[in-house]
Design goal:
This protein is an alpha/beta fold and 483 residues long. It has a single domain, classed as Rossmann fold, CATH 3.40.50. It contains 13 helices and twelve strands. The strands form two sheets. A ten-stranded mixed beta sheet has the order 1-3-2-4-5-8-9-10-11-12, with helices on both faces. A two-stranded antiparallel ribbon has the order 6-7. It is globular.
């Protein structure tokens, strides 16, 4: 019995020792990661920062920073010369060099309709680029919306740039984009924000800020795609690498992954500091939302339409419900969930059921928002329906969509939702091989392991949404209804 007090005294020291051993093991393990390339180490100091907003920057000033940072990128790549991967995005003149595409969609872009009756600000995700919302921008432009798709700081250039920016830089960029977009249509015209993944978090964050700051233009609608409302708790330790990663011997410790950069519009390598910034953004957003709910102001938020895959390895899908839709409620708010393919034989290989929470959710009476599930019409068909539960009590209704699961596809993914099947980069390959780029979404490599320079999982993750026509139709209906 006398040993117990002594053991209690030693427990903190033992725990600290264990943490230190694990920390050092991770640091030394990081040295086995692939070699760093110039795009993992380059510093592009012309990038827009939050202090530039404080100095009075507007969209013109923001785009001037963008031109300067892409000029720095060209200088860095010119010194580096050709890469060892001919299909790499940084291989000059290669098929995946964004500069060989008809448009380099890594940059901010605008789309102008003949006559703007509304405006929309598009916010892409972490490690992504404005390309990820290109098709949605085209859809809304064709419905009479002026479109501004903003390249967020640290994106579209080199993955190392994400080590030098933070969430305040992203927030400042969103404020500039929103202020500009709101002026491109008349007073009272619809003003939407469409956010994808981390961009969805920034969209909600901005809408909450606009409740408290009358100087900010309030959006009239939010469209959230794969919203990053909850991510892995491991993102919270994204700065623990700093004490050692500043040393050249441990410089790889600042990276979660170091992969070849073959994707023209998305980074493959992922720095830990970027995950930490997203984690902090989400934590602050949820705290602000809780205050708004507590103060009775949540119903002042604009209507929200969300699209989420039931299977999502990037964000925690149940957190989208418990951290956003359930607290704010509202009959005008709707979450569309893309179910797994319940007829696919691949379900026999699942490590667990990623949708157990979903069955519990739609069996609960009285959800305070509309829930729509895109799921198999029955257990014997690949055809899907939109099964919708109204807010409050009520029975679901089924709407046939004329769409079916493609052969071999067992679920959607976090990265697939905003891309149509005919996307030239991430689509199903039905449009053929263009003169530029590689149809990454349709590659199905078969062969011996360890031969490819690019990890096989980067090819097998679904990159397009076979049910994009439904998403497009929903946007079309809302655009026609908003005036």
């Amino acid at each position: 019995m006398r040993l117990l007090p002594s053991l209690a005294l030693w427990l903190p020291a033992i725990a600290l020792s264990v943490v230190l051993v694990v920390y050092l093991w991770l640091a030394f393990s990081s040295r086995r990661l692939p070699s760093l390339q110039v795009w993992h180490t380059a510093r592009l100091d012309a990038e827009f920062r939050a202090r530039d907003l404080d100095a009075g920057a507007d969209l013109a000033g923001y785009l001037e920073h963008e031109r300067a940072v892409f000029g720095q990128l060209e200088s860095v790549l010119a010194v580096a010369g050709p890469t060892a991967l001919p299909l790499g995005r940084y291989h000059p003149g290669g098929r995946n060099d964004p500069n060989t595409f008809p448009v380099n969609w890594n940059r901010s872009f605008e789309m102008q309709p003949a006559a703007a009756r509304g405006t929309v600000l598009l916010l892409h995700g972490l490690t992504d680029s404005p390309y990820s919302l290109r098709r949605i921008g085209e859809v809304l432009r064709d419905r009479g919306f002026y479109v501004l798709s903003l390249r967020l700081p640290g994106h579209g250039t080199v993955p190392a740039a994400l080590n030098d920016v933070n969430r305040e830089d992203w927030r400042a960029a969103v404020r500039i984009g929103a202020a500009h977009a709101r002026t491109r249509a008349g007073t009272g015209a619809p003003f939407w924000i469409v956010g994808y993944s981390n961009g969805a978090s920034l969209a909600v964050d901005y809408a909450l800020a606009a409740l408290a700051d009358p100087a900010l233009a309030r959006p009239s609608r939010l469209i959230l795609i794969s919203p990053a409302i909850g991510v892995s708790p491991f993102a919270a330790i994204g700065r623990w690498h700093r004490p050692l990663s500043a040393l050249p011997f441990f410089e790889k410790f600042r990276w979660h992954t170091i992969y070849p950069e073959h994707d023209p519009f998305k980074y493959n390598s992922f720095p830990k500091s970027a995950a930490f910034q997203t984690h902090q953004l989400i934590a602050e957003l949820r705290a602000t939302l809780e205050r708004a709910v507590r103060d009775g102001r949540a119903d002042e938020l604009p209507p929200i339409l969300g699209f989420q895959s039931a299977a999502d390895a990037t964000v925690r899908t149940p957190a989208v419900i418990d951290g956003l839709f359930r607290p704010i409620g509202g009959a005008a708010n709707e979450l569309v969930v893309f179910d797994i393919n319940r007829v696919s034989y691949m379900r026999e290989y699942f490590a667990g059921d990623p949708t157990q929470w979903l069955a519990e959710l739609h069996s609960q009476p009285g959800l305070p928002f509309r829930l729509t599930l895109i799921t198999n019409a029955d257990s014997n068909t690949q055809a899907v329906v939109a099964r919708s539960w109204p807010p409050g009590a009520g029975q679901p209704t089924d709407e046939p969509l004329g769409l079916s699961w493609p052969l071999g596809v067992y679920s959607l993914s976090h990265v697939s939702l905003p891309f149509p099947p005919d996307d030239p980069v991430y689509g199903a390959g039905t449009t053929g091989i263009p003169d530029w780029g590689v149809p990454l979404g349709s590659l199905e490599p078969r062969g011996e392991r360890e031969l490819l320079a690019v990890p096989i999982e980067l090819f097998t993750r679904l990159r397009y949404n076979p049910f994009f026509p439904y998403l497009e139709r929903r946007l079309d209906d809302l655009a026609r209804g908003d005036s």
